[in-house]
Amino acid sequence: MIDVVWRPGGQKPRPSLLEGDVYRPDILEIIEKTIDELSPALRELSQDILAHPELKFEERHAHDVYTEFVEKRGFVTQRHYLLETAWVATYTHGQGGPVLGVNSEMDALPGIGHACGHNLIGIAGVAIACAAKAAMQKLGIDGKVILLGTPGEEGGLGKVKLWEKGAYEGMDVCLMCHPAPGPPHSVSLSSSLSLVRLKVDFVGHTAHAGLSPWEGQNALDAAVLAYTSIGLLRQQTKPTHRIHGIFEGKDWAPNIIPDNSTMCWYVRAPTTKETLETTERVKACFQCVQILFSVECHPRYKFSRAAAIATGCNVVISEGSVGNELVQNPVLGAELADVVRKKYGMIDYEWGIASASTDFGNISYLMAGLHPGFSIPSVPNGGNHTPAFTEAASTMEAHEACLDVSKALAAVGMRVLTDKTFLSKVKLAFEEAKRARNN
User: Fold this and answer.
1) Which of 29, 99, 237, 241 is the most exposed place for a label (fewest CB within 10 A)?
2) Is 270 helix (H, G, I), strand (E, B) or coil?
3) pTM of the model
4) Do 358 and 371 form a contact (C-beta atoms < 8 A)?
5) List of E strands, 55-156
6) What are the pLDDT digits (tens) for 346-389?
C-alpha cells in the first residue's frame, strides 16, 4: 500500500495548482505580504506556547502572550473575557459592515503537551486576524474582526461556554483550522465526530479482602465487568462509531475490597443522532452492573445482569453536554478550496480531524463556520494526541503549512467582508443545513 501521508524529511513538491485568478487578487497580495512579514514573530510565539503547555482553563501564560502580541499590532483587547483564560481582540474599520469571527485555541494535553497542535491553531487565528486588519486598512474596507481566544477545547467545551455567555454575538461567520496527518500540502474539508461524555460512579462496600471478602461489594469488579460488557457491545456497533474510556479509584489497596470506582467514557459517531442512540446502549451496560434486587434487565444484557448479581454495587451515571459533529459551511468551503487549489496545494475530504471531535462542532450548529484541517509532516503512528505529534507541531514545515492555510482562510474572511452576495449565500446554506438536520 502506498503511504500518502506527509512524512518528515526531504522536500515534498506541491501538487499541481489550478490556473486562474482568485477573488480579489489585490486583497490576497496584502494578506500574503502581511503574514510573510509576521512569520518570524508568529514562529517565536508558537514555540513559546509549545514550551509552556497548559491544561484546559489553565492557559494563563498563553492568555498573556497572545493578548500582548495582538495589542502591539493595534487590536483592542479585553483580557479575561467571560472566562478567566479567554480573551478577545477586535479591530473595526469605518461604520457598519459585516463581522468576521476567528478562533485561537490554547490548551495542551496532560503529559504530552501540545500533541494536538494548538500552538499552530493559536497563531493561525492571530495570522488571519492580522492579515484581515491590514487589508481593511489599506483598501478602506468597512467591517469588524473579532479574534476570540478560546480555552478548554480538550474536554472542556470552552467554546460552548463562551457561546452561552454571548462571546459569538454579532459574528456573521467564524473561522479556524486544525493540524493533522494527511497528504503533503493538503487542506481537509472533512467533518468530525459528534461526542457524548459519560462519568460513571460505582459505589460498593469495603471489606477485608482476605478475612471476609464476602462482606464487601466490589466497585472495581463492577467497573471491570462494565468495561468488558462494552467490549462485547463494540462488535455490534458500526465501524464509524467510537467507544473508549478509562476507570480509576480512590484509596484502593490490594487487601481492601474497593468501595468506589469511577469510569470516564466518550461515545462518538458521525452525527449527533447516531451518537445519542449508541450512548443509550452504552449506558445500559452500566445500569445493569448494579444489583437492585427488584431490577429486571433486558435479555440483551444477560451478561451485565450476571455482573450485577456478582457485584451488588449501585451506579450513578452523569452525562455531559453533547458535542455536535462539525458542519463545514459549503459556500465558505468552496471558496477556501478555490484559493487553496490555485495558490497553495490540494483539498481532501477524508483526512483532517474526521475521526476526532471538536467543540467548534457546536458552534457550526449555531452559526456559519469553517474549520478545515491542514496536514503537517508526521511519523507513522505519530498522529494527534501522541508525543510524536508534539514534535511534529514544532517543525518549520508545520509552521509554513499553518501560514498557508491561514492565508487561504484570511482570503475567505475578506470575501465575507467585501461581497454581500457571497455572505447571503453563506447564511442561506447555513439555514438550509439546519433545516435538513431538523427534518
Assistant:
1) 29
2) coil
3) 0.93
4) yes
5) 76-78, 87-93, 99-105, 143-150
6) 999 999 999 999 999 999 999 999 999 999 999 999 999 999 99
